[in-house]
Predict the structure of Pilus assembly protein PilZ.
Amino acid sequence: MQNLKVGTPLTLELKKSEVDEVDHYKCKLVDFEDSKIYIDYPVHTKTGRTGFFLDGTQFQASFVGQDQSVYWFKTEVVAREKRNIPVIALFFPGLEELNRVQRRKYVRVDASVDVAIEWDTCSFPTITNDISGGGVMVVQSPSDKLEEENKIDLTLVLPMNTGETHYVFAIGKVIRVIPAKVSQPERVSIEFIDIHEKDRQLIIKYCFEQQMQSRMRALK
């Protein structure tokens, strides 16, 4: 099965109906057939507890494909079986129904992510105003003087929904410095000019997770 093979890690998102919260579970694909995929029993990313779900329980599942792109699809529990190990059967809508986060169409989301910036002999910590797979906008204090065309090193700290924290490294170029306003500090728009594709995909996945959380809040 293209982009989805045995052993692929999956993240399952389960929305609690009574509160505006989402539980995240990690599992692995152990087999597939027709319109079903089989996973080992999911483990809650924060508590470490194994999840037990009734038939019909609905999830949003996501994974990183063999092409390093992020895919997601809607699914639900259809059965529980015992093979070599106990497994859960999930409905699989088919490859044509997978939603792919485009690698070259970077969605920008508002998010405060910790970032360390270094250039020449200077360095300072700050936070992002927004972020995408193509770059970031960061807050700049009066004492920090990045200018257009400056090339800088960035280290971003991405807190994922799984509870994991990833450190992403990139080289960026300052595209624009936006002067401070009464209600906003000075901001700096930075384009990534050198970043490992796996790190870019982590940023894209982070942006995707932020989008999903915003949509769930809007639907409440």
Q: What stands out?
A: The chain has two domains: 9-100, 109-219.
